[in-house]
Amino acid sequence: MADEIKTKKRGKLIVFSAPSGSGKTTIVRHLLQQPELNLEFSISATSREKRGQEINGKDYYFLDIKDFKNRIRNEEFLEWEEVYRDNFYGTLKTEIERIWAKGKNVIFDIDVSGGLRIKRKFPEETLAVFVKPPDLNELIKRLKLRGEESPEKISMRVAKAPAELATAPLFDVIVLNKNLEEALEKSYQLVSEFVKK
């Protein structure tokens, strides 16, 4: 499986997964600002519409549904998921090749299914971290505070959360994000130790 990636240079793969609103994006952004970790963000591909100020090739690779499905057929994805109906997300193999070719480690901010798939394909190279919110009520509060999505979309995300939370034991480590500073510090220590191996 792992030889699907066409590059001689192999860095590490750092996966952060969690239900929406757990704080994984905040943690990943913090880690990306630490140059000693030598990280680069894996830009996911998606079939959903752009939100707000999002930029193609920076926030996501925005593909239409037809193009996304063609790439699935051509086995261009390391992992992909239909997260909601006709709402696909995935990691292109070329994205990992691009980052590893630069001699960097790859950091992911992806859903739990995708995170576990990457761990299965690259068990030695991957650190899979699950970011856990204190509880569901806090998760709902955070999603509402973001103010980015409709009440319907928030309800869909909350409905998925219990199943996502149930996958936490399958990850290498769980970071509880009750206190953001503590979660940032723990995440930094975990990643720092892993990239030195």
Would you summarize the structure shown here?
By secondary structure, the chain is α/β, with parallel strands linked by helices.
What features would you describe in this structure?
The chain is α/β, with parallel strands linked by helices and 197 residues long. It has one domain (9-196): P-loop containing nucleotide triphosphate hydrolases (Rossmann fold), CATH 3.40.50.300. The chain contains 7 helices and 9 strands. The strands form 2 sheets. It has a 5-stranded parallel β-sheet with strand order 2-7-1-8-9, sandwiched between helices. α5 (136-146) runs antiparallel to α6. The radius of gyration is 16 Å and the shape is globular. The mean pLDDT is 91.
Q: What name is given to the CATH topology?
A: Rossmann fold
- Beta fraction: 15-25%
- Helices and strands, in order, run as EHEEEHEEHEHEHHEH
CATH architecture term: 3-Layer(aba) Sandwich
SS content category:
alpha/beta
Shape: globular
What radius of gyration results from the CA coordinates?
A: 16 Å
Instruction: Count every beta strand, where a strand is a DSSP E run of 2 or more residues.
Output: 9
Strand order of the largest sheet: 2-7-1-8-9
- Note the total helix count: 7
Q: Which key features would you list for this structure?
A:
four-stranded mixed sheet; five-stranded parallel sheet; Rossmann fold; 197 residues
List the helices and strands and how they pair.
Layout: E1 13-17, H1 24-32, E2 39-41, E3 45-46, E4 61-62, H2 65-73, E5 77-84, E6 87-92, H3 93-101, E7 105-109, H4 112-121, E8 126-132, H5 136-146, H6 151-166, E9 173-176, H7 180-196
Parallel strand pairs: 1-7, 1-8, 2-7, 3-4, 8-9
Antiparallel strand pairs: 3-6, 5-6
Helix pairs in contact: 5-6
